[in-house]
Structure formats: C-alpha cells, structure tokens
Design goal:
Layout: H1 11-19, E1 25-30, H2 33-47, E2 54-55, H3 60-65, H4 68-82, E3 86-91, H5 93-97, H6 102-112, E4 121-125, H7 134-149, E5 162-165, H8 171-184, E6 188-191, H9 216-220, E7 227-231, E8 244-245, E9 248-249, H10 253-261, E10 264-268, H11 273-288, H12 294-314, E11 318-322, H13 325-338, E12 341-346, H14 354-362, E13 371-373, H15 378-388, E14 394-397, H16 402-408, E15 412-414, H17 432-454
Parallel strand pairs: 1-2, 1-3, 3-4, 5-6, 5-7, 7-10, 11-12, 11-14, 12-13, 14-15
Antiparallel strand pairs: 8-9
Helix pairs in contact: 1-7, 7-10, 11-13, 12-17, 13-14
Bound molecules: iron/sulfur cluster (SF4).
C-alpha cells in the first residue's frame, strides 16, 4: 500500500542526523544517489547548515550483481577527500531489498587494507525505510555506534559518569541538556551531540567535516558508565518488523550497554512540560546524589506563574498534536497539563506502543475523547478530524502540517522535525522548564494572533 504525505521521514535520514553527532564522522549511505540527495536537501532546509552525506551510488548493474565494488570505491573516495575519523554507514531501501551484507563489505575492506595507517573507524546501521521511521533510524544509528565503539576504555573514569542518550532533539536542546548537566556538576557523555556540527558558526573557509560531535573516546567510555539515561519511552521499541531485524534483536543503546556491560538503563520521557521535566530532574538527583540546583527551581516557579497568566487563553482549546512518537507523548502531556484539549494525537510511527505509553504517562489525566493514530499520513489526519466533526483551534507539530492549518485557517505552533518554512529550527528550544516556557508562550500568542486577525473589531488589548 502506498502512502501519500506520511507523518514521518525516511529511516536513513534519522541515522545521518545521529551520525553527525560523532566527532569527525562522515555519514555514508549504501544505496542510490537519490536517497543521499533527498536527505541532504531535507536536512539542509531544516538545519540551514552544509550537510555532506556520501553515497555508494548503486545503479542498475550493482542492484543485480551486488554493490561491493561501489562500496569499496566509495570508501576510498571518502578517505581521500574527507580524511574522517569515522565512516558511519546506513543502508537504504534498495540495499536492504537486494540483501547487501554491509558488515561483510566492511570486513572485506578492512582485510584488503590491513596494515595501512590512518584507516578510519567504520560502523553500520541497518535502516530499511519501509520498516521504520526517521526516529527508528536515529536510534538504530545511536545503538550501532555504541556497539561498534563502546568498549570500556576511553576518557572517563570507570563508574564516575553517566551516559545521556538525548534522542532526536534540536541542537539548541542538546546545548540545554549539557547546560543542565554542567550546572548539576554531573559528569556525562552526551550522545549524539550535533549541537555544533548542525548549528555551527560562520566559517572563513569551507570545512569538509565541521568541528564538534561526541568524541570517540567518550563513546568508547559509555561501557564503563554508572548508568545510561535515555530520553523517550518508545525509542526504537517497535516498528513494522517488531523488535527483530535480519534475525538480530533491535535494541536501544541503553539496552545494549545494560546487556553487554551491566550499565543500568533508565528511561524517562522527553522533558517537555512541568511533569515530564520534573521526572528527568528527579532522576538526575537520584543518580548524582545531588539536589536540584536552585536555578531550575526558579525556572520551574516562573513557568508555573506563566501557566497561571496564560491559562485563560488556552483553556479547553482543541489541539491536533503530531510528530515522532516520543515527541507526541511529551506534547500531549504538556497540553493536558496546561488545559489544552488534545483532540487528535497522530504519528507516522508504527511501534504499536503509542496509546499504552500515553496512558502510562498521563495516568488519570488521559483524555478519553482524544483520537490516537499510528502510521498516519496527513491526509488521514484530516479525514479523522472530518469524520469526528472536530475543528481544532491549534496544530502543534512540524511544518508538514501547514496545509491542514491553512485549509482549516488555524494557527500552527512549529516544533520537531522538519521545520522548512521558518528559520531557526536548529535553535528551537523545547526541553526543560525554559523550553516549555517558550512553547507555552508560542501557543498562547498563536491563539491570540489568530483571534486578533479574525476579529472584525481589531482588539489590541487581549
Ligand atoms: S528510497 Fe528509501 S531510503 Fe531512499 S530516500 Fe526513499 S525512503 Fe529513504
């Protein structure tokens, strides 16, 4: 069955974002040229940064006889042109469909070049897009990098640090998470860290691989952390193929480290809203043995004050919330917390876990009248609203919902990925009390702007 305008992106796209969070890494797709072109284009329009993604450029001949030669020529070219520390490879629909064994190709390349100085690390994530979303590709890539590199050696002292696997969030949110950890005095490996590589400064001369990313030594030391914290309840815990791909169990990075090295894995949701941010800060307090810093108590207090100020504008407003599964859970939790009424929670993900996760997260505040849709397209979202006879007041999600907002003539608060019709997506802060402050102000002001714009009188005192 084909789907038009799906509420998700392609799996290797998510893998490329995660790979940009490894210091000195160049992402490479084993597949056709078009996949890399589409992904580069899509990422550049969101992050407004140069994003190089190499490709093995499989054509008709390689599709029939195998892509081994294209693969090794591609690796040669990358090494000679980019000199990366890591070549991070993701598969595509094509290479998965013809059954390419990329791990074998990596092994053959290493064997053919044994003894050569300066060979980069190579790692591989299996990311068939017909089996998962960009989010599953992202988490698959994070786990693949940890599996390939984490070995207990590296720059951090054993058991003295935690791993923070920060999910598909904006560069600004990664910076904010690092700020929280630094304010707390918690030693941590934050991975993947694309806060500089996908949101750098102005360059005097073009750099093939931007500075930044989680250092390799830090990723290696993930195996000797005292605990891992994963942001998100669902991560890659589902997908069309369930939890097995190519006869290998699909795991998150935290699950892998727990199984292979005994590093305790703790999960909490994306910290959006007071309730979900409280959960993360409580977990950090527990893991560090240190109380919540005063700075965050004040931020929380200011946010509660803001909720009180803006409550009358958002109360009982009907919202459609959509995007990646863990983001959708966090946004619904926020909406319910501030008195917005979510009428539809939609995602392109197909983990089969969205509804139960929403129920577990929201408890008795779960809005029974809310429709929940997985594997959805934007057309299906609109049809669901029409069938229910519901006209929302607000959309909260990525810029792909714009056509629905335009047809319904309602405002849209842009969060998540992609945001292609505004600048500043890379600096969109959503997490923590401060991110929630910005989100709440955006929602209130979007509703006020809509009321003002549609008013025949033109009130200026709202
Ligand atoms: S063919 Fe598959 S991997 Fe390539 S761009 Fe399309 S969905 Fe992504």
């Amino acid at each position: 069955m084909t789907s038009v305008n799906a509420c998700k992106q392609c799996a290797p796209l998510g893998a490329c974002v995660a790979f940009k969070g490894i210091e000195g890494a160049l992402p490479m797709l084993h597949g056709s040229q078009g996949c890399a072109t589409y992904i580069r284009r899509y990422l550049i329009s969101h992050f407004r940064e140069p994003v190089d993604v190499a490709s093995s450029s499989l054509g008709e001949e390689a599709t029939i006889f195998g892509g081994g030669r294209n693969f090794s020529v591609g690796i040669d070219n990358i090494i000679s042109q980019y000199r990366p520390k890591v070549i991070a490879i993701a598969s595509t629909c094509l290479s998965e469909t013809i059954g390419e064994d990329v791990q074998r190709l990596i092994g053959e390349y290493r064997a053919a070049h044994r003894g050569e100085v300066g060979l980069p690390e190579m790692l591989f994530a299996s990311t068939p897009s017909y089996q998962g979303t960009h989010c599953e590709g992202f988490h698959e890539a994070v786990c693949a990098a940890v599996k390939a590199l984490a070995n207990g050696r590296g720059g951090k002292a054993a058991g003295r640090h935690i791993n923070l696997f920060c999910s598909f969030v904006s560069p600004e949110d990664i910076r904010h998470l690092k700020e929280i950890l630094a304010d707390w005095g918690v030693s941590a490996v934050v991975f993947p860290d694309y806060s500089d590589t996908l949101d750098g400064g102005s360059w005097g001369a073009y750099r093939r691989i931007p500075e930044g990313g989680t250092p390799l030594e830090a990723i290696r030391s993930c195996a000797c952390a005292s605990a891992s914290v994963e942001l998100g309840y669902i991560l890659n815990a589902g997908g069309r193929s369930g939890r097995v791909r190519r006869n290998v169990a699909v795991q998150s990075a935290g699950e892998y480290l727990q199984g292979a090295f005994g590093v305790a894995c703790r999960r909490t949701g994306l910290p959006v809203g007071v309730g979900e941010t409280d959960k993360l800060l409580r977990l950090l307090a527990q893991l560090s043995g240190k109380p919540v810093p005063e700075k965050y108590r004040r931020q929380r207090s200011r946010l509660l004050d803001l909720y009180a100020d803006g409550h009358k504008y958002v109360s009982m407003k009907k919202a459609v919330i959509y995007g990646e599964e863990d983001l959708a859970v966090a946004l619904v939790a926020f909406a319910v917390e501030v008195g917005i009424k979510p009428v539809l929670c939609a995602t392109g993900g197909e983990s089969g876990k969205l509804q139960e996760t929403l129920r577990e997260t929201l408890g008795e505040t779960y809005p029974e009248e809310m429709a929940v849709g997985q594997g959805m397209t934007f057309e299906q979202m609109e049809a669901t609203l029409q069938a229910a006879g519901v006209r929302p007041d607000l959309l909260i999600g990525n810029s792909k919902g714009y056509y629905i907002a335009r047809r319904l003539d309602v405002p849209i608060v842009r969060v998540g990925f992609p945001i292609h019709d505004r600048i500043g997506a890379q600096r969109c802060r959503l997490l923590g009390y401060e991110g929630t402050t910005i989100l709440f102000e955006q929602a209130v002001n979007a509703l006020l702007d809509d009321r003002q714009r549609k008013s025949p009188v033109g009130y200026k005192y709202m």
